[in-house]
């Protein structure tokens, strides 16, 4: 049954006009019993600001050899669960990474293996939160809110403190010896921070971090993409005053954050709009936002390398059906009210997605593109970190880390 639906939906998505026709017809029988996957939310699709797919692909370089799939290595299989962000400490130890079971773990070498470094809440227990391989499945969803879901990680290079953006517990910090992290920011303007996602540290100690949406939390993140809603923010936490401030508002799924080498600007991704943006921090353009690059798919984190270039992790590619849906909010509101299971819709929408990682300069010029077209070593990529001749690649949804000798 499910298989047949899937095939049916696939046909629709490959033929946008058939899709439209079917959707118009199904309007008549639309969700009469509130069975649709989104009926529990106030689903309000809006048109969003996304560059035409064909135009983006025309100038986007391809990696026809699929070099990431060919030369990439799958490591730590079934030892780490949804390692989104990867970080190394001041002594070069690591990687450290945040897991779907709420822990921050670190790799201590072959002999000692992975050790638990920190948790984000005193409510974390092994009994409630440790679900092994199942941590990255829906079995964890109802526990995430209690166990935490650390996403963005950054070490303060001065004192070795680790800053954490947790999807449920906001911004936190833990000392170089780990343990229970200290909460820094959970609220802003009197309301909870619903979906902290990534962060970077300014030289003056202020932390810039993203809050992906005011309406949906991490488990419901698919709705943010479907709606095209833009209630995300870039926030700033100032340690001397222990206060949190809104830097930018009205963003469409703000996700990764990265300062430039000289900290004159900061790059961030807007996942829904498939683009890389720049906020000027210093100089004559201070405070203004620029569009740096349109991307072929949905970006997650951005990380700088030693040369000051930026690696962007991208789930590729957008399809022409997605294009039709994103330009026509009314189509989305019908399609996603059909009484089909959400997981199936997500699967259909994400069908044929593969990993693209790309290195760009500060102007948005594409310097390198590496693809894994068959999903051989990487699916649902979340971060690329270049450290001493090696790329470390994280994923929010699978139980491994991929690496690639680079260059
Ligand atoms: C990759 O393949 C596409 C079409 O299959 C072609 O247009 C493009 O020039 C190729 N790129 C390279 C770098 O060979
Ligand atoms: C732990 O859980 C209790 C009960 O659900 C809740 O009241 C409390 O705020 C939680 N503590 C933290 C640190 O989140
Ligand atoms: C995860 O699954 C693999 C097989 O797919 C199994 O070998 C391994 O023991 C599992 N690990 C955990 C922690 O459940
Ligand atoms: C650090 O610099 C940023 C960018 O100029 C500024 O917004 C922030 O207020 C500064 N923080 C402190 C603690 O001075």
Automatic annotation (TrEMBL):
Name of the protein in question: Protein STRICTOSIDINE SYNTHASE-LIKE 13
Superkingdom per UniProt: Eukaryota
Start and end residues of each Strictosidine synthase conserved region domain: 197-283
UniProt GO cellular component terms: endomembrane system; vacuole
Main location: other
Keyword annotations from UniProtKB, A to Z: Glycoprotein, Membrane, Signal, Transmembrane, Transmembrane helix, Vacuole
MF term (GO), any: hydrolase activity
Provenance organism: Cicer arietinum
Lineage of origin: Eukaryota, Viridiplantae, Streptophyta, Embryophyta, Tracheophyta
Pfam families in the record: SSL_N, Str_synth
Transmembrane region(s): 12-30
Family per record: Belongs to the strictosidine synthase family.
Compartments where found: Vacuole
């Amino acid at each position: 049954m499910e298989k047949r639906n899937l095939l049916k939906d696939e046909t629709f998505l490959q033929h946008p006009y058939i899709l439209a026709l079917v959707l118009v017809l199904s309007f008549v029988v639309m969700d009469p019993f509130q069975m649709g996957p989104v009926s529990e939310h106030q689903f309000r699709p809006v048109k969003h600001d996304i560059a035409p797919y064909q135009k983006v692909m025309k100038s986007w370089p391809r990696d026809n050899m699929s070099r990431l799939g060919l030369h990439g290595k799958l490591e730590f299989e079934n030892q780490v669960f949804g390692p989104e962000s990867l970080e190394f400490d001041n002594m070069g130890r690591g990687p450290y990474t945040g897991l779907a079971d709420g822990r921050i773990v670190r790799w201590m070498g072959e002999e000692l293996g992975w050790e638990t470094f920190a948790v984000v809440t005193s409510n974390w227990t092994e009994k409630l939160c440790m679900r092994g391989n199942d941590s990255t499945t829906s079995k964890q969803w109802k526990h995430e809110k209690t166990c935490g879901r650390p996403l963005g990680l950054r070490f303060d290079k001065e004192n070795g403190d680790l800053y954490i953006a947790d999807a449920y517990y906001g911004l936190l910090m833990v000392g170089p010896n780990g343990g229970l992290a200290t909460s820094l920011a959970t609220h802003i303007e009197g309301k909870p921070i619903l979906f902290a996602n990534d962060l970077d540290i300014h030289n003056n100690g202020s932390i810039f971090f993203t809050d992906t949406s005011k309406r949906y939390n991490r488990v419901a993140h698919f709705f943010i993409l479907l709606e095209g809603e833009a209630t995300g923010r870039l926030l700033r936490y100032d340690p001397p005053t222990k206060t949190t401030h809104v830097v930018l508002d009205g963003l469409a799924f703000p996700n990764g954050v990265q300062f430039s080498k000289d900290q004159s600007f900061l790059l961030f991704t807007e996942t829904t709009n498939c683009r890389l943006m720049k906020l000027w921090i210093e100089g004559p353009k201070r405070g203004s936002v620029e569009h740096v690059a349109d991307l072929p798919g949905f970006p997650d984190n951005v990380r700088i390398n030693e040369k000051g270039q930026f690696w962007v992790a991208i789930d590729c590619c957008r399809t022409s059906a997605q294009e039709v849906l994103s330009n026509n909010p009314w189509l989305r509101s019908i399609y996603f009210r059909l009484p089909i299971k959400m997981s199936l819709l997500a699967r259909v929408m994400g069908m044929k997605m593969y990993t693209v990682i790309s290195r760009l300069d500060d102007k948005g010029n594409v310097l390198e593109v590496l693809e894994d077209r068959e999903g051989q070593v990487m699916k649902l990529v979340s971060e690329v970190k270049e450290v001493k001749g090696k790329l470390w690649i994280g994923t929010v949804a699978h139980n491994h880390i991929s690496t690639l000798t680079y260059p």
